[in-house]
Amino acid sequence: MASQSIEHGAGSPPPKSSAHTWKETALGALRGVGQVDFQASLWCSLVILVALWVAGWEIGLFATIGAVVATLTARLLAVSHDSVTQGLMTYCGVLGGIAMVVYLGNHPSTYVMAVCAAVTCTLVTATLGTLLTPFGLRAFTGPFCLVSLVMVLGAPSFERVWHGTPESAVTPATPKSPYVSWTDLWQGFFSNFSQIFFVETWYVGLIMLAGLFLAGWRVGLFAVLGSVVGILTAWALGAPAALIGEGIYGYNAVLTSLAFGVVLLRATAWNFAYTVLAAAATTALTASLSVLFEKFGSHTFTWPFNIATWALLAAVPFLSRITLLADDS
Amino acid sequence: MASQSIEHGAGSPPPKSSAHTWKETALGALRGVGQVDFQASLWCSLVILVALWVAGWEIGLFATIGAVVATLTARLLAVSHDSVTQGLMTYCGVLGGIAMVVYLGNHPSTYVMAVCAAVTCTLVTATLGTLLTPFGLRAFTGPFCLVSLVMVLGAPSFERVWHGTPESAVTPATPKSPYVSWTDLWQGFFSNFSQIFFVETWYVGLIMLAGLFLAGWRVGLFAVLGSVVGILTAWALGAPAALIGEGIYGYNAVLTSLAFGVVLLRATAWNFAYTVLAAAATTALTASLSVLFEKFGSHTFTWPFNIATWALLAAVPFLSRITLLADDS
Amino acid sequence: MASQSIEHGAGSPPPKSSAHTWKETALGALRGVGQVDFQASLWCSLVILVALWVAGWEIGLFATIGAVVATLTARLLAVSHDSVTQGLMTYCGVLGGIAMVVYLGNHPSTYVMAVCAAVTCTLVTATLGTLLTPFGLRAFTGPFCLVSLVMVLGAPSFERVWHGTPESAVTPATPKSPYVSWTDLWQGFFSNFSQIFFVETWYVGLIMLAGLFLAGWRVGLFAVLGSVVGILTAWALGAPAALIGEGIYGYNAVLTSLAFGVVLLRATAWNFAYTVLAAAATTALTASLSVLFEKFGSHTFTWPFNIATWALLAAVPFLSRITLLADDS
User: Fold this and answer.
1) What is its main location (chains A, B, C) (predicted)?
2) Do B130 and A291 touch (CB under 8 A)?
3) Of A111, A124, A306, B18, which is least surrounded by CB within 10 A?
């Protein structure tokens, strides 16, 4: 999913299964943290991982468990060497691990569930590889969304897994006022980066943004663009200011902006406009999907990013004005 | 989607982006009105457009906004010349524009939303082109259904967009009696044509039917067939008579009958039977989907037509008895 | 779907429509009963059919109606000879027929609905053939799940079809205690086989298991494995003991185990482990899907089996360790 990943074809079945060293596997697990934001850079991954531990030891620990287990699963099942070492089989496990502790609470059974979630994330990453490649699409964080959807829906049915809704999963009643304060604005701007990892703390987002700039100034700038477009769109539509301040309306736009701006499209003015439009569409979609998932007791996760990006990427072959980076080679 | 569209392959990415004249673009916008019913005929489109303005200036205006914006979007993004001039990128925008005023009410913000809906309809038409072409399917009105689903679900979350449920979107409590009166019958027969465009007035449907006969006697007859099969199926199953009279149970059957009877299948007895079966299946599906969409606060739109037609069209390669028009060439 | 079906390619459109004798058609209808469990064996099919009549004349009769109508539909529409005679167009109709009497009750209209369900199951089997073959997947019982979903959702809207929820469709309030008794265990073990056909009676399951062993010791053993894995997983997660005893948590695992163990994968240790994991994942998924379908008034049917098997089968091309039987040829 990183720019590197385009050449080595994360989207096609492995030509051969090759030897892994443990060091490569460990680097794959680390890179998986950055790959959530499409970055294979080790420094970027390290900074984001530090930010997760800063957010709280539980977040950090479950992210680490997810990364390690997902990577080991991929290695054990002999997924292609490059996919594993670039973290492409890992990033969904990172998010899946965090989702478990956020939505199930920190109980012994949650550790088991985090392991299960990470294993399943790796498998579903392969599934979406098969299902989406024929359309020129990639899995993005879809596997994490699917696995977490299923786990969060099913958990309350099982006595040994479910110990009541944890505090971290309670959405407090938010005031619906659309009048955005300065605090909402700047905190929202940073929370948009951390909310990708279920964290609502602005300085965690700040550290993550620093990590993204480490991966490249272009990466950092498109992350900033996504955050700004997300806030502006949500404000223009009249979304509740409190949710804007918590990053709820912007984290998907950040991912969409990174996807189109850095990974998928060439650097042209038309493509830049398309990226802005995609980030805005993602923000609007966030409300629809929140309503939908609330109806049957699940959560939005990064569905808006995935659905908007899949839809707008699949449209590109018909739109001569928009040009894919992949067509360069 | 019209019979013309089969040859010039609306389903494949454009071979070249060619010059458009403004006149061609305008004709494309007009043809988009007829393409809702699969017709590229200018006269047919004109008559249906008149019928929409007869139904009310708001319906007419928003349909026109949708047609113009969707067509301009396609031209701006350099969609292939023929798709634009035949109205194939326009018809979903027409329906999307009307849906906005029906479900959001006539407010200044609704004009902005209609523009957004039309732009998105054009993009999602391209998306479904990519996703469905490998299966030999076409987008039909799926893009409109998807965009309207998302907009109607999300709108109440946004203060600046949502001004309460408008009168036009309120479904009055209908008596559940299945005993169909003569008035239900003949009004339903005509409303089945207008209900495709969210209009419940029988004489609007009558004008539209005249437009369809202008496009060809075969077109008119299959529209009539769809309407009759829809009413008979709904009556046989015991649907509420009031809904039959409002065209709720028949408008999808009209579209399915036009799709299979005029656009997709050759003129054989077996294919005729398959068309009738498809129209009946569409009617039955209407109830299931209405229940489903009501559960999470959306609407049926033309989902039953799309889903039934996709399913039964995808089945054809396995059924030697049923023969596609496309295989002639 | 049986092991035989792999060679003759149930997944590709018919090369030619060939003559059917009535005897072949009749055998196809009978084989359809066994094909629910992936078996084309006539003896196995006969034993399962007997078990269905033992479960009650209504179950037996509607299964028979479904089998006959689905097979005749396929023959009438000239589906390829082998698909029909191997029962591959029939098995969904068998389940669809039973579902109608269970969820609508035994009324005259239900016979009409069973015929409609069987016809639609055959058509949707063809649909999924077209949609899934490009991904290397097969329809499994997906057509039955889709058709029953639609019928159960839509039925209450139609006066002439709906006569109130029948006793057979009422789920009694189950105690949520996860403490499994010995009776729960052994009754659940056998009910897991019968629950595939909506039957909760342990000795019906016992007869069916005997039928599976008739089709081959390997078939019987993987059915046993699925049932055991289903019970163990449900117990470990803390599912309500009463539901385990009724086979609710295990019937999908039986199908998944048969699919991966007998039909899809080669006999290696890694593949065996993957089959166990798939059966466990299916069981966990059962809870999520039950919650989901309950929300909008439908039922779980064999969705967990289909979704888990599609997902894990689509993942295989990326997992060098797991090897498909189909790659042998």
Assistant:
1) membrane
2) no
3) B18
How many Cβ atoms are within 10 Å of C297's Cβ, its own excluded?
A: 12
Complex-level ipTM: 0.89
Q: Which range marks the domain in which residue C99 is found? A: 20-170
Q: Which residue has the higher pLDDT, C280 or C2?
A: C280
H/E/C letters for each residue in A296-309?
A: CCCCCCCHHHHHHH
Q: What is the pTM of this model?
A: 0.91
Interchain CB distance below 8 Å, C150 and B288: yes
The span from the CA of C103 to the CA of C162, in Å, is 10
Radius of gyration of chain A (CA): 18
Asked if C116 and C27 sit in the same domain, the reply is: yes
Rounded to a whole number, what is the distance in Å from the CA of C277 to chain A's nearest CA? 10
**Last residue in a domain, options C170, C195, C220:** C170
CA distances from C297 to A158, B294, C6, C106, C168 (A): 21, 11, 36, 20, 16
Q: Name the residue type at position C43.
A: W
Dihedral Cα A304, A306, A307, A312, nearest 10 deg: 110
CB contact under 8 A, C318 and A13: yes
User: In sequence order, which residues have a C-beta less than 8 Å from that of residue B53 and are 6 or more positions away?
Assistant: B59, B60
Contact (CB, 8 A) for A250 and A231: yes
The minimal CB distance from A311 to the residues B127, B154, B297 is found for B127
Going by pLDDT thresholds of 50, 70 and 90, the confidence category of residue B215 is very high
Residues A182 and A322 in one domain: yes
Count how many residues are written for chain C.
329
Strands (E), C131-214: none
Question: Is A270 within 8 Å of A322 (Cβ atoms)?
Answer: yes
Q: For residues C47 and C197, give the distance between their C-alpha atoms in angstroms, rounded to a whole number.
A: 14
Q: Which residue in B282, B318, B321 has the most chain C C-beta atoms within 10 A of its own C-beta, making it the best mutation to test that interface?
A: B318
Q: Between residues C38 and A13, which one has the greater pLDDT?
A: C38
Subunits with 3+ Cβ pairs within 8 Å of A are: B, C
- Choosing from B150, B170, B190, the residue where a domain stops is B170
B18 at the A interface (CB within 8 A)?
no
Residue ranges of chain A with per-residue pLDDT less than 70: 1-20, 171-174, 296, 327-329
DSSP letter string over C169-192?
G--PPPP------HHHHHHHHHHH
Both structure tokens of A175 = 């005031």
Residues 6+ apart with CB under 8 A from B23: none
